[in-house]
Amino acid sequence: MARALVNVPKAAKQGEVVEIKAMIAHPMETGYRVSPNGSNIPRDIIRRFACTYSGEEVFSADLFPAVSANPFIAFTLIATTSGTIEFTWTDDAGTAQTASAMITVS
Amino acid sequence: MHALWRLAAVSAATICGIVSAAGIEDGEKRSGFDFMTPETQALQADDMSNPGMLWVLQGEQLWQQAEGRADVACAGCHDNASRTMRGVAARYPAFEAARGRPIDLAGRINSCRAERQQAEALAPESDALLALTAYVAHQSRGMPITPATDPRLAPFRDNGRRLFQSRIGQLDLSCASCHDDNWGKRLGGSVIPQAHPTGYPLYRLEWQTVGSLQRRLRNCMVGVRAEPFAFGAPELVDLELHLTERARGLLVETPAVRP
Q: What is the count of structural domains for chain A?
């Protein structure tokens, strides 16, 4: 059950700069912490975030242990064509969680 | 004789004045939101950047999910939460006749799970319990806190007030020492708020996750170096009762964000 909140404007004008916001529930465990019984808590972070617009990658980010839990990423895109904006978060185990939203460009 | 009565009335009024000055007067009641930086306020105000909304979202999914041997979802009985659960969090904790004790919202969700869904109780502070509680409480967002007026709650509420005002721990501080007498001043780098439970379960930046009011209360108890009550302890529910009475009239903010 991917818990992600993405905010993409439903409609935009051709050439308009739109703000995209994406947040996902993730512990972002650094791997530097020790559990109450003294064993190391293994690292578990999201390594890469990527956003595609009509299939083409338009934004990506590498994440590191210093990033907080439930990472929130905001960026801007230029609205070109109507299509699907897809978001992918890939974690240490290589598992990808996805979310998507439609944008209509007039 | 008349003069004597008048004198008595005046001194009684003066004493009452002093007593209420130790608490927070109605006009001065302020949510913890007002003590935060504008950046943190903005984080809470925008549902798309408020991380607590992730739990509300999860709670919405869990609400629809059939559970337990009865194989029934919350929605199976309570239907649409936005209608049936509206205002519920604003009046909790409520009196539960079966136990002869008050019960808080998370406790009610767990007792509903055990009795109606015949499912395992959710662990305190588990994501699922926090998510369901946040989802239910979220339905009351923007409504004024109006604690239940059930007279059977009175002794428990009084016990809550007594606990709030009792000095505990190695630092020998009561809740009231900070939150009634010294709110608005600073403790280390942070402003002391009035401790109104307006937005629980809330996302605390220090925790990097959502937590319940009981977690926050235990936190403060550890802070004054006292032995905290266990999760679900009756004393914590009594304290919750007193706190909601104290916050009467403030608006529900769930899911709030706090530093």
A: 1
Give the closest residue to A73 by CA, choosing from B162, B49, B117. Answer: B49
ipTM computed for the complex: 0.88
CA B80 – CA B63 distance, rounded (Å): 9
Q: What are phi and psi of B186, to 5 degrees?
A: -110, 145
Is B16 designated active site?
no
Min CA distance, A39 vs chain B (Å)?
21
Tell me chain A's radius of gyration from C-alpha atoms. Answer: 16
CA-to-CA distance for A55 and B80, rounded, in angstroms? 37
Task: Kindly name the residue from B220, B231, B234, B259 that is annotated as catalytic.
Answer: B220
What's chain A look like in SS3? CCCEEEECCCEECCCCEEEEEEEECCCCECCCCECCCCCECCCECEEEEEEEECCEEEEEEECCCCCCCCCEEEEEEECCCCEEEEEEEEECCCCEEEEEEEEEEC
What CATH number should be reported for the domain holding residue B115? 1.10.760.10
Q: Are residues B128 and B213 in the same domain?
A: no
pLDDT in tens, B213-253: 999 999 999 999 999 999 999 999 999 999 999 999 999 99
